[in-house]
Design a protein that fits this description.
The complex is a heterodimer of chains A (287) and B (323). Chain A has 287 residues and is mainly alpha-helical. Chain A has helices at 2-16, 19-36, 38-41, 73-108, 111-126, 129-140, 144-171, 174-182, 186-222, 234-243, 250-277, 279-286. Chain B has 323 residues and is α/β, with parallel strands linked by helices.
Chain lengths: 287, 323
């Protein structure tokens, strides 16, 4: 446990030497705080409709103005970060776990099982992402749960393939053979010896995929296929703004900016993490 | 002395990956015999040296003995139990242990040395009261400092890692330890230390060793008997002293003659073998060694010799041992 804390400290320290990574960390922390403290920091109820004050320009009361129903945009953006982060973190987390388990089993298990899994992974990844998402949504109906299922189905095969490839290289390594020769069970080898050695790259990939998922959530919500109104999501705020872009462009800008910042933040953080955790890649980028 | 390990006619075959065409033509699935008809007995309390050049199947034999590779023919009996199914292998894993060639690579990289030393007990469900104390006891046994328990494998030197390997192999007080190149990658003084440690522990714990190596000087020093392998077959088995003094198989002769002599004035017969070891993919017809043998005759090119007893202790597989 001590060494885990220590290595986390070391990671943060080496991140701080990388300005972009540090910026990313700052942005991510900002959005996390925003999401967690949403009820405390948002000035209004994000769902409160006030038709009299619709399409207001930014003012001292409404810093980012109001939308077509007179709801406070700033509050909706703050609550939107909750939607974006909770969906993207849950979905990538679950997808990561699914990918990890499937990849370990495919890599370490018998040959036929591996073939079955690889066929499955390949057929899912061969489908166009948006088309596949639309198909799943048509079957399950739009909503937050469906969105998470879609994201898991789309991204887990990629993670599984990454883990499988690493498991295959470790499967015949000396330390796994040594464990086998001592009589260790397959479960023990997978969980105690393979998992800790394959999980590192996955964490990096996951953190770099979070922005993609945030964009996907926003995109599907924009198309009214993701988070259902009136729950605020950056995507459906963008949609609201798009319909009134000529009269009041504030809405589009207000919803677009956090989307861009969150995407950049997670991307920078992911790249920073990759450089901090994988010294070999760092060397390559120096050359 | 009773037999601890009895190998009878052991063969290990690997399938050669066949192309799409081969899949549809029956009888075309190809195999290579990596180990062919190995028969060997290891007595309790003895040290057997297994020698041969790279690619002769020494490591494969060790892995097959521990059930890490599927056996295609033959039987293994360990301590009275026949090793056939996975279950039977599991039972003997408690009383046999393997030391791998690469001492660092065979330690799981994300585990501390302490955790690695305790592992055998956990795997076999043996309750130990104080894990830390047990780890330190094992470290002490192989002459390592107790604080090494908190280190990770990559932080160890080659000699330390090797000692950890010894400690781990001996954790459950096994009857047989198979050591694959126990001195590989160590400098000479550390080699000596490891060998002395292994010999010491052998007398203390009453172990038997099977030492796999191509270091002839070491084998001569530590083993009671040696078995010489060539291309997946045993060519000569006998007491170390006798085999070194008068090797019978032409391959063993060349092998032993190739051992460096410390005395430069001592001339040695030029018995150097020419050429490379043939590939198991394309075994020579007849005797395996006939392509490189100085005394090969027609019979050698057509008929493969069997391992036969020359005396009560010596075995050789050559048609013309007299010459």
């Amino acid at each position: 446990m001590f060494s885990a804390v220590e290595s986390l400290m070391r990671t943060v320290k080496s991140l701080s030497r990388d300005p972009m990574g540090f910026l990313g960390l700052g942005l991510v922390v900002m959005f996390l705080l925003m999401a967690m403290l949403a009820p405390l920091i948002s000035p209004f109820d994000p769902l409160k409709i006030n038709v009299q004050s619709k399409f207001m320009e930014p003012s001292l009361a409404h810093w980012l103005g109001t939308d077509q129903l007179g709801r406070d945009t700033l509050s909706r953006i703050i609550y939107g970060s909750r939607t974006a982060l909770s969906i993207s973190l849950t979905a990538t987390g679950l997808a990561g776990i699914c990918g990890l388990l499937l990849g370990l089993v495919a890599g370490f298990g018998p040959r036929w099982l591996d073939n079955v899994f690889v066929l499955l992974f390949d057929s899912i990844s061969s489908l166009p992402m948006i088309m596949f998402a639309l198909a799943v949504i048509t079957v399950l109906g739009p909503g937050t749960g469906t969105l998470i299922v879609v994201i898991i189905l789309i991204s887990a095969p990629g993670y599984a393939r990454l883990i499988r490839a690493q498991t295959l290289t470790l499967k015949n390594s000396d330390f796994v053979l040594a464990e086998k020769s001592m009589g260790a069970s397959s479960g023990r080898i997978i969980l105690l010896h393979l998992l800790p050695n394959v999980v590192g790259p996955l964490v990096i990939i996951l953190s770099m995929d979070i922005p993609v998922v945030i964009m996907l959530e926003a995109g599907l919500s924009y198309l009214n296929l993701g988070v259902r109104p009136p729950t605020p999501s950056w995507g459906n705020i963008l949609y609201d703004g798009y319909t009134s872009i000529r009269s009041s462009p504030t809405l589009v800008i207000a919803a677009g900016a956090p989307l861009v910042l969150a995407t950049l933040g997670f991307t920078f953080l992911g790249e920073g993490l990759r450089d901090a955790l994988d010294p070999k890649l760092q060397l390559m980028s120096l050359r | 002395m009773t037999a601890l390990l009895e190998i009878n006619g052991l063969s290990v075959r690997f399938p050669i990956s066949s192309g799409l065409r081969d899949m549809f033509i029956p009888g075309r699935d190809k195999h290579i015999n990596v180990l062919d008809d190995i028969s060997l007995v290891l007595k309790a309390g003895e040290t057997l040296g297994l020698v041969g050049e790279s690619g002769s199947g020494k490591t494969t034999l060790a892995r097959a003995l521990l059930g890490l590779l599927p056996i295609s023919a033959g039987t293994i009996r360990f301590d009275g139990h026949a090793l056939k199914s996975k279950q039977s292998f599991k039972a003997v894993r408690k009383s046999s242990a393997m030391m791998f060639q690469d001492a660092v690579a065979c330690l799981s990289p994300r585990m501390t040395i302490g955790a690695l030393l305790i592992e055998p007990f956990i795997i076999h469900g043996i309750a130990i009261a104080d894990r830390q104390a047990k780890a330190q006891e094992l470290l002490n046994r192989v002459g390592l400092a107790a604080d090494l328990a908190n280190r990770y494998p990559h932080e160890l030197s080659g000699g330390q890692a090797r000692r950890v390997g010894v400690a781990r192999a001996l954790a459950l007080n096994p009857k047989l330890v198979i050591a694959d190149e126990p001195t590989a990658g160590l400098d000479v003084s550390v080699q000596g230390e490891i060998l002395n440690l292994m010999t010491e522990l052998k007398t203390q714990l009453g172990l038997s060793y099977m030492i796999i190596t191509h270091n002839l000087a070491m084998v001569r020093h530590v083993s009671d008997r040696i078995a010489v392998m060539y291309l997946g077959r045993l060519v000569e088995v006998g007491p170390t002293r006798d085999v070194f003094k008068q090797p019978l198989h032409p391959y063993a002769k060349s092998l032993i003659a190739s051992e460096p002599q410390p005395d430069p004035r001592k001339r040695r017969a030029d018995l150097a073998i020419k050429g490379e070891i043939p590939s198991v993919l394309n075994r020579p017809k007849g005797c395996e060694f006939n392509t490189r043998c100085a005394i090969a005759r027609d019979r050698c090119r057509n008929e493969a010799p069997k391992l036969r007893a020359i005396s009560s202790t010596r075995f050789v597989s050559c048609h013309f041992t007299e010459t």
